[in-house]
Design brief:
The chain is mainly α and 221 residues long. The protein has helices spanning 18-38, 47-67, 75-90, 103-125, 127-132, 142-178, 188-220; strands spanning 7-11, 14-17. It has a two-stranded antiparallel sheet with strand order 1-2.
Length: 221
């Protein structure tokens, strides 16, 4: 697991790697869960529907408190993003390489946040006010303001990538170091997985989504 993602094939110049396949698998699982949980909605919800409604309500509350009621239309996207990241960041529990341990994946997500930020900033303020913001409070700060905007997606993508790759490497080294032991391999990895896969993975999912909401909301205000 400490090695880089393997390349299995190449289609039209696009490499199909371990990260790509694991991403497809995570997406398939999420789609199946969504279909199953919404197939037979009832007035008196069952366990699956109750959990689904709780997740949706929690995300709606997060979006409302972070972005305001006027931006509730972002809730479905943010919910999709955090569910995907939560699954992608924790697949190490079943021995899979997290797709978010690949810089291509995390930068793609952060660039998507950057595009949404710029698009809705222009839509909310107008192109004139949007461009004027780059020369405020003083025109000579234009290069700094541009670099500040470009730094957001880079830091967002590298933060998620670094944490997930670091956890993947440490777990790989840990398993390699414990291969010759008999009693401890079942104890130490459990504690390490609990931190690197569950705690750190879910925390990084939350941080990524929260920062995405903050960036978009600040750009629109």
């Amino acid at each position: 697991m400490a090695e880089g993602p393997k390349i299995y094939a190449e289609i039209l110049g696009i490499q199909i790697t371990t990260s790509t396949i694991n991403m497809w698998m995570v997406m398939a699982v999420i789609i199946i869960l969504c279909v199953v949980s919404t197939r037979n909605l009832k007035t008196v919800p069952g366990k699956m529907q109750t959990i689904s409604e709780l997740i949706v309500t929690t995300m709606n509350n997060m979006v409302e408190s972070t972005m305001g009621k006027k931006n509730m239309s972002f809730a479905p996207y943010m919910l999709t993003l955090i569910v995907y990241l939560a699954f992608a960041n924790t697949v190490g529990l079943i021995g899979m390489r997290p797709p978010t341990a690949d810089l291509n994946m995390t930068l793609a997500l952060s660039i998507l946040t950057f595009i949404l930020t710029q698009f809705f900033a222009i839509k909310s303020k107008g192109i004139g006010t949007y461009l004027k913001g780059y020369i405020e409070p003083f025109p000579f700060l234009l290069p700094m303001n541009i670099m500040g905007e470009l730094a957001n997606p880079i830091s967002l993508g590298f933060r998620l990538f670094g944490n997930l790759l670091g956890g993947t490497i440490i777990m790989g080294l840990l398993y390699t170091g414990l291969m010759n032991l008999i009693k401890l391999p079942l104890v130490i990895p459990i504690v390490a997985h609990a931190y690197f896969d569950i705690f750190s993975g879910l925390l990084q999912s939350f941080i990524f989504v929260m920062l995405s909401m903050v960036f978009i909301a600040m750009a629109m205000d």
